[in-house]
Amino acid sequence: MKTGAPRLGSQWTTWVPPVAVVALILGWGRELPPVAMAIIGVCLVGAVLAAVHHAEVVAHRVGEPFGSLVLAVAVTIIEVGLIVTLMAGGGDKASTYARDTVYAAVMITCNGIVGFSLLMGTLRNRVAIFNAEGSGGALATVCTLATMTLVVPAFTTSQPGPEFTGDQLAFAAGASLCLYALFVGVQTVRHREYFLPVRSKEQAVQPDDHAPLPTDRATWSSAALLLVALVAVVGNAKLVSPAIEDGVESAGLPTAVVGVVIALLVLSPETLAAVRAARLGRMQTSLNLAYGSAIASIGLTIPAIALASIWLEGPLVLGVDATHMVLLVLTAVVSALTVVPGRATLLQGGVHLVLFAAFLFLSFSP
């Protein structure tokens, strides 16, 4: 953004989100042939790229950490709607959709987004610099939420299987919501300086640093188009999910793969935005997106699913198995060693990417 807000009317990012929504409306509730499925896939990719663009416009206007918060919350709210829609569809597999999607979101954000961001940041500047105080607090919140909602249910005894009782689920939902609200308050008000981009003296000033702010009109237009694009991303992901489910079933793959693929699609706007920020030397923005998305994914999803479970039929399985539990613990340990120094090299990025690859591989081959 070299000249402030771009002219929205001349940008492809202006018309792609509405076109993607039109494709969503035309394809909703219909049996789609392969050609139509391919068109929806193209619209899905276009909506992802458009969402990244408009999120960056809004983020540039409101500044950090509010910009990262906008994208994280917007994606997560619509992700909740997708999970509830999938669970409402019923079937024996619906009981694990929430767990699979939330667990996948944690692993994608904490290993995939962080790993790729560190890779891009260290290839450009050799050492990635960020605020250990803010990133460490965010990571602690992620670990607490993930353990309480994905690990503890596997060890409770009041309910058979990796499930919470009604009272336990209500407590976990309330605690998750409180932690999320506390994190947002600390990030945006009380200790906002801990979440602002940090630069070393060796790093050059980036072109975006002194770019004029977008106008109010451009900002509100981008905010509206961001919401439209996110609806298109999640809705079109829902349309292609039956094809994904059929492909997973025909290939004999585990049901959890569906949650992994959907989470990858839904989190793709945040991934692209985080990697671009890291490439520009704003590693703190990348970590804000990664950990903020993980916190929002748990802190908002679990309360919403707990509320929806009142009218949804069937059990709600939340506890992960032993293999995923080990990966989750290893992710927490490695992440702590990454963020505590406030500096990271290519090695840390490689370690996170190996963990991300292990998560993907073991999801397809448990």
UniProtKB/TrEMBL annotation:
It is a multi-pass membrane protein. The chain crosses the membrane at residues 12-29, 35-54, 66-90, 102-123, 135-156, 168-189, 223-244, 256-277, 289-312, 318-339, 346-364. Signal peptide: none annotated. Its main location: membrane. Pfam families: Na_Ca_ex. It is found in: Membrane. Keywords: Membrane, Transmembrane, Transmembrane helix. Residues 35-188, 222-364 form the Sodium/calcium exchanger membrane region domain. This is Ionic transporter y4hA. It comes from Streptomyces albipurpureus.
